[in-house]
Fold this protein.
Amino acid sequence: MKLFDTVSQAVSEMRIGRRLLSLGLVTTSVMIAVAIILYNMSASVLPAFYSRYDLVYPQGMSVSLANAEYEDLERIENSGLKNLDIMISSYYVDGFQVSSTKSGQEIENCSYSLVWCTCGEDPGKGYSYPEDFQMDYTDNTSNVAWVSCAESKQAQFLPGSSITVRDSEGNSAGVFEIKECRVLEDDGTDAVTQIYLPFATVYSALQKDGIWLTHQITGIVKPLSDYPAIKESLGKDGITAVSDLDLNMESLSNMQSFFTVMSLVITLAGVVSLISICGMFLKTRENFIVLQKILGNTNKKLIGIYFLIMEILLILAVGIAAITVLLSNHYIYSVIYHIFGDFQYQNIHTLTASLIAFGAANIVMLISIRSIARKIGKTDVISAINNRD
Amino acid sequence: MIEFSDVRKTYSSGTEECEALKGVSIHIAKGEFVSIVGRSGSGKSTLLHIAAGLDSATQGVVRIDGADLSGLSADQLSEHRNKKNGFVFQSYYLEPAYTVFDNIAMPLLIAGVPKRYRKQIVESVAEKAGISHKLMSLSSKLSGGEKQRVAIARALVNDPPILFADEPCGNLDTANSEVIMNLLKFLAKEGKTVVLVTHNLEDAKTADRIITLRDGLVVSDEAV
């Protein structure tokens, strides 16, 4: 029997069993369509969530890092976190004192900050932080300081002049050259002078006196979709990134797994239902199979006919499901949009899911074809003839 | 043409065994019209099924045109059935959802005969079987006699040298039985070897020779 004849006979068989096979086709199409929607939701839930969060937090989200030392800062910066900051407890920082090296007199009414200068996206330009000071990454280990003060105190902090910084116990935190002094717009004489000192220099200096500054490193993640990769990357170095996203991510990850598993289960259920219905159809065709065998058709060719029928049905089922989902994506995803935000992943995911569903369906079908082969192989022509006659 | 040498057939059902043929030796020559008669359970259908390559002997040798059937693979047996044998059954074994044309063309399809030749061949055998006027009818809409004519046409469509008919008139009235038997006789005259299994002696007498089976043994073999 030639291929065309096999196809022709398979089509004839489908025509004969059209009611039963249509039932299988509709059932499978619906189930695979649902499976594709679930798969799409699985693949889209995180991007949609991040998209929504990026809208809510346009400045990015703060991430604090546990087990991170200041020596790790460069590494942390390379991970993608932006606007790194090091917070020392205000108790200690407020205990700094500063005096002019020229006069040796203490400068009063000052507030202190230890800062970690980050390069930003263009190290050549430096990074404006804080108060738009032009800072460079190399400033972290230098003996420079930045000051913002009232106009009346500007003379004490002329760029190039030096100040000596000690802690309340008298331990030296270093001698710093004023790199830049910015005058506060509000020229009240009681305005607090803010002195910014490079973290690494102060840290090293105090370390020599046996003082270890306890600190907390934080950064900003933007866009939020970068967060999982950053968290994973830092985790490899033993640094734990913590943010408000963590709890949500766990829920979303569970939701994603649920959608994925349900998608797979429903795909398999759909295919199994199609195979069951094909099995029922095959039962109605027992006499035909007996007749074919009597007339000299071989088991292989008969299996080929029914394999072809199932393959045609699977292609139709997955095709109908994919087209249905593609056509209805707009409506389906408008619901998700309202929950999570705007994204454009659905069509690609639909096609990917269709291919995966087709692959999974074929695996199941190939397994089940064995039972069809057994059925055809075991069909006893003699008993069938005897029973009928 | 058809040669049985001490053929035995045993059916097993659980621990019980039933010997349907107990050492049958017969020879049917080319172009002979032979009737095999016997009571129900005498082994006549078993003999026909083994001769037709639908079933295998437990013991003994079955040769068709000198070829030992037991030496053929399943696929070779299938090809043998398709090319060498024609079958007619009491219950017709037609595909009810197919037209008469498609039913008759089925063996041609299996044999891989190109579509362009099928129509001509089918029309020719349908004419011979007297069913050409119903070619486009569904086989489920035919009368018993017409169905059996379709079955005979289908049996002839590959022009096989041997025709096996198992109680072909079992479901037919007298008039239709006569038509079918005359058709078989005509085919035998045309050179086909016809093996008819029947319990109806009148039908059996249409043949050139009657072989009688009883309890799995040949008890008589005589010319009509």
Summary: Residues 61-221 of chain A form one domain. The CA atoms of residues 24 and 274 of chain A lie 5 Å apart. Residues 299-340 of chain A form the longest helix (42 residues).
